[in-house]
Write a structure and sequence with these properties.
GO cellular component, one term (chain C): cytosol
Helix content of chain B: 25-40%
Number of helices of chain B: 9
Number of domains of chain B: 1
Protein name (chain C): Lactate utilization protein A
Strand order of the largest sheet of chain A: 1-10-7-4-2-3
CATH topology of the largest domain in chain A: Rossmann fold
GO molecular function (chain C): oxidoreductase activity
Shape of chain B: globular
Distance between the termini of chain A: 68 Å
Structural class of chain A: alpha/beta
Largest sheet of chain B: 6 strands, parallel
Structural class of chain B: alpha/beta
Function (chain C): Is involved in L-lactate degradation and allows cells to grow with lactate as the sole carbon source.
CATH superfamily of the largest domain in chain A: NagB/RpiA/CoA transferase-like
Largest interface: A-B, 114 and 90 residues
Shape of chain A: elongated
Strand content of chain B: 15-25%
Bound molecules: iron/sulfur cluster
Low-confidence stretches of chain B: 238-245
Strand order of the largest sheet of chain B: 2-13-8-5-3-4
Pfam families (chain C): CCG (PF02754)
Helix content of chain A: 40-55%
Distance between the termini of chain B: 49 Å
Chains: A alpha/beta (474), B alpha/beta (245), C alpha/beta (245)
Oligomer: heterotrimer
Largest sheet of chain A: 6 strands, parallel
CATH architecture of chain B: 3-Layer(aba) Sandwich
Mean pLDDT of chain B: 92
Mean pLDDT of chain A: 91
CATH topology of chain B: Rossmann fold
Low-confidence stretches of chain A: none
Order of helices and strands of chain B: EHHHEHEHHEHEEEEEHEEEEH
Radius of gyration of chain A: 26 Å
Number of domains of chain A: 2
Amino acid sequence: MAMKIGGRSFDKRAEQGVRDSYMRETVRTAQERLYTNKSQAEEELGDWEEWRSLSEKIRSHTVDNLDYYLERLSENVSKNGGHVYFAQTAAEANRYIQSIAERKEAKKVMKAKSMVTEEISMNEALEATGVEVIESDLGEYILQIDDHDPPSHIVAPALHKNKEQIKDTFSRRKGYQKTSKPEELTQFVRKKLRREFLEADIGITGCNFAVAESGSVALVTNEGNARLVTTIPKTHIAVMGMERVVPTWEELDILVSMLCRSAVGQKLTSYVTGLTGPKAQEDVDGPEEFHLVIVDNGRSNILGTPFQSALHCIRCAACINVCPVYRHIGGHAYGSIYPGPIGAVLSPLLEGYEDHQDLPYASSLCAACTDACPVKIPLHELLVEHRKVIAQEKKTTLGETFAMKGFGLVASSPRLFEMAAKTAPALLAPFTNKETIEKGPGPLKEWTAIRDFPGPKKERFRDWVKERNKGGAE
Amino acid sequence: MSSGNVQNQTTFLNHVADRLGRERRTTVNPPSYFSFPHQKMGKEADISELAKVLKKQCLAIHTDVREATINNLREVIDQVFVEYEAITAAVWDDPRFHQFGLDSIVERPQVSVWGEEPGREANIQAAEQADVGITFSDYTLAESGTVVIMNGAGKGLSVSLLPTNYIAIIPLSTLVPRMTQATAAIHEQAEKGRRLPACINFISGPSNSADIELDLVVGVHGPVRACYILVDDLKKEKKNEHETN
Amino acid sequence: MKVSLFITCLTDIFYPDVGKNVVELLERHGCEVDFPEKQTCCGQPAFNSGYHKDAKKAAKHMIETFEHAEKVVTPSGSCAAMFKEYPSLLKDEIRWRERAEQLAGKTYELTQFLYRVLHVTNTGATLQGVATYHTSCHMVRLLGETEAPYVLLSNVQGLELKELPNKQNCCGFGGTFAVKMSTISEQMVDEKVEHIEETEADVLIGADNGCLMNIGGRIQKEKKPIKVMHIAEVLNHREMGGGDV
Ligand code: SF4
């Protein structure tokens, strides 16, 4: 499956992440910097909470009326002369895109960064028909020439790599001879790709937002590659997840403002491009043919469930940038192209629990993600919701189920609670050393491998209260 | 313009409505938003305050700023050419070049005017080889340091994109507080059922990337340097008013 | 004022001294403290693990236990937040939901109660030393309380408070997370301890015994010379020479 990356279990991947000290250092610095930038950008907006509430409202209104807005969008694209293809599955989307490439006799496709094309494995599908697909986003390009290393972050896909590693890849694969200075590496890519742009037959982009009222696609970028992809090739295909629609340009304003600030702490990225393709008769450049591919690929299953708000996501990665779990294990450990809190919510929804059952547990529920989300998705609550589903479907271990049943029983019965609390000291006594447990039994083992555990005290608080009430005074 | 194809729409949208637990909706009441924080921003600011905000923001986005009057605009542009070691240029076919007294620049042999060459490739080629691309700004957003350009016909997309450097001429009259005012104007066009320009660009400085170790590198696929030239086109109007009074 | 104390199961069993300090502190500020003996646990372990049926049992029991209370005070931001979660947990059982809402409305975390209800800013405590304060995630993000502990701590005589770097980061407790994802939890608690050490404080203060059990357990295991105190112990602390006001 396409979203899934890496083999092995979550535990193994997480451990590997924890041991990758270089990756962790980069991620830590990145998170710190992004956190500072975002906080500053929030402050500049005035009342950030007011902006968040407005954004949430826009997203929930749109998703609640998704059929209506998608209809308007497709009608308007068509009115402008563009083509729209609604794809229920990844395979349908790929088949349609392949058919365009075939009709155009395309040899070379230039791509801008897009998560949804990763999700549906579009590159592989095109390459299978003999079309060369070149990633033009710097980060994606680095990954592509490094044997398709998977992305580890949805905004900065090559975040896990350092410049030395990048330099080595460039010299190994592309005969690069200069230093590891980011400026020089970037200049090299600029020169290399310029030629490719001029020769490309088709440009493919994702879609940050599609504006229903005008049939436009908005792309939010910094490098300028998405502009090249939509300026030079004669055919432009935009691929969008079906939830990425906004009613009008007025809502676009709000969401783009929030996206740029939350993703990179910029007021606006260098390029926000509103494309209402195809080009007009009198235009000289720009695509002569425009296709919008609207992809479901599992999203509709989320509608009408307690998880619906996950579809409000604008893919800013703010939740990833504050997540302590992500900081320590990195993006690859999640085993999905969507990492971090939103990935832990989304991956099981789009691809099922089988491959992603551990993800909802990879959170201390500290709610930093929920707090950071510009459209107020209650991410940590959705993680609990996943746990609920998993528990209900009895996918957890029997031990846990019994333990929790027992818990419910004990916590709702003062008598049992009393018994449990009273027996605890006795049970733990053999492990207790001066009121501390250094090596505990059962589930305590995991705890005490890392930390000491307090031994239960001889007198509980409630015993003290009883005594005190009896005696009347201290 | 003939309309494009739409495929699989009905099944797809019926399914969406179904999942939402209701019939397809053919009308939707526009959402009622309770607050408009974006409309409040910069509302009180006058042009000179907006210009100040813009200039400050340009520092943050690695963009050079020059100021000019209509009388010395040509010289200021030439100075930027010298500074950027630029000789060739690509410019829009835009009446404003004439209105702002720039005919002598446009007519230079090293300057190619968009659409002048026959055919798509030749124009792209010319822009690709130019040292500088020059366009006017249609709306200028103070908050984010953004030049909004409505491309189309003589206003080619490539001019602000392919040359090594980019110069945006910003008449002060185009200054607005933020994106809100530009999108409101675009929204108005759309509401009237007008076809929007095939490409509307919001450009904030030179192209850049932070994909390598989150280090900001300026100049990736688009221009390596960007310069905004603020031209005071309001003074003249004022003078005229004065004279007629 | 009459307050009913929800001591939390952790404090009851493992940290009775903290409980005693809570009682003394409340009494000193004119409260009559009632301890409903039937109280058990707020149900968070089951809730967070997705066993909502079992969590509901605990919730209903606690709602009944505290039904008579005027105000409920608890020395844990996390458990207070769990009480506030009851209405949504019981949203499908209207009668229970209403009762849950009443409980949620009258529940306060200890410092919140002192500061916001009793309007206390100075508890008259003295403690000589350099300390840093760990803000627990649930107190800050779920209860939205960012001020009360700081105000109260800032008025403890003799106490020098150092800001904890990256204080917004979770300590890695997360209930069952600490054992279920122990590899990751270990990294998180280590990072927290590192930041605590950076402050060179000799006392770590927190308002949640869950976090303190985690961080304190790690500090103890690593034999670091840092003392761990619940905020109730600090706010109720007296030293010779420090006067009662
Ligand atoms: S869930 Fe929220 S914070 Fe995370 S990527 Fe989506 S919009 Fe951004």
